[in-house]
Amino acid sequence: MKLLFLIFYFLYVILRSKKSFQMLQQNFYNNSNRYVKWIFKNSKRSFLTVDWLFLIIIAIGFFGFDIGLLMAIFYFVMFIYYYDYLKFEQVKIKLKFTKRVMRMCVTLFIFYVILTVLNIRGNYIYFLFGVLASLNSFIIYLVNIINRPVEKCVYWHFYNMTCKKLRDMPRLSVIGVTGSYGKTSSKNILADILNVKYDTMPTPLNYNTPYGLMLSINNKLDKFVEFFIAEMGACEVGQIKELCDFVHPKYGILTRIGVAHLESFKTEENIIKTKFELIESLPSDGIGVLNHDDPKQVGYKLKNNCRIVWIGIDSDCDYRAYDIDYSYKGMRFKVKIKGSVYEFSSCLIGRANIYNILAGIALACELGMSVSDIQRGVKSIRPIEHRLEMKKIGSRTIIDDAYNSNPIGSSMALEALSLMPGFKVVVTPGMIELKDKEYQYNYEFGREMSKVCDKIILVGRKHTKAISDALRDEGYDETNLYIIDDVKEAFNIVNRDCPLDSYVLLENDLPDIFNE
Known about the structure:
The protein is α/β, with parallel strands linked by helices. The protein is built from 21 helices and 15 strands. The strands form two sheets. The protein has a nine-stranded mixed β-sheet, sandwiched between helices. A six-stranded mixed β-sheet has the order 10-11-15-12-13-14, sandwiched between helices. The longest helix has 25 residues, at 2-26.
């Protein structure tokens, strides 16, 4: 019976471990203790589960029942139950079986092999293994700690490989892009503009960590590239500086500074300081592009003597967009460049993208591109996935802004929705990681929605409470408000209750770690 128990037990543990690895991965392998915080915030999903029912079986064993058989039946039932649960669970980001995850799987395997070989006698083995299954989230955390020395060695191996490759490319110039939001859009827009004249390579997707930059440089960067655009993300002070010390950017773009990741940064001052680490790391002959409409950037005392170029819409600056004509088909606007006025057009939508395009125009000019080439580049800009991306599904139009959300970005997304000529719908789970200001910012988000949207679909009762409170206070017609638990249901509502000319804004898509 012990063998039967071990078979069903390990089948179940494999499923539990896969889920725990997925949560560890989405929490950046416990960077800033994110995974540990997730465990305790989600105790009913992580360790206060039905797994502890095995204690009842252990107690029954004292009355002479075959505990091995009972435990085998228990974990067979648990395996079937959990397999069925995972099959129907809504998963947005699946576990990626990277080499790092595979190394942790080997460590976990060795851990259980040692325990099995020890051949612990009596009912103690059932008790020990039952506790380990119930605390699986913590076991995966322990495995992550055990593997740290190995991961450190792997990190430095690839770090040195990357540094050598960069040293062997003296013609290469690095452009850093950071900010609280708009990094990926700004990076891709700049790449589309520069590619008209130069061989340019941006980091793929949202690769904005040390590992992401290493993968990009070691696997993608070739000797013909003239400009490498490195997206730089951070959730702690010093992380942008770490990336700059790694790739040594000569040019930098700071998009906008908001309150994203306020929970890990602790204060807005820390966010501002961290974002400016890029500009303050530039050499004296470098160029930094800043946003003059962002008071956090204007008010910052820069500790660097590099050249600064300002962009904006609402304030007079080096590169200012004006006479902006927004429509659901795209945008047209004018920019004054070196005393002459030039018109630009793009298929992108939204005020946020005007800033991103302006940053690209400014840096391209400073790098010697002709205005006609820049105009061609701006016109050829491709929509960026999940960033105010327009999609047609039947006769309805989806405005996909699902990648991330923050107070300023969500406001700009609603502004873009307001320009649409048809029935307006928003689908959102609200905003997260805003610390003690989360309720306030979501409340304001709800107030803005009430002025724009014909129907509102909120995903998750807990995360969207502030939004629903605001809608109620604003007197929004509750027959046009839906609160659901599964985002898939939103599309059923749109198909059932919304006219064919609807424009549907998907604002934010919480990762699996925030599933209710």
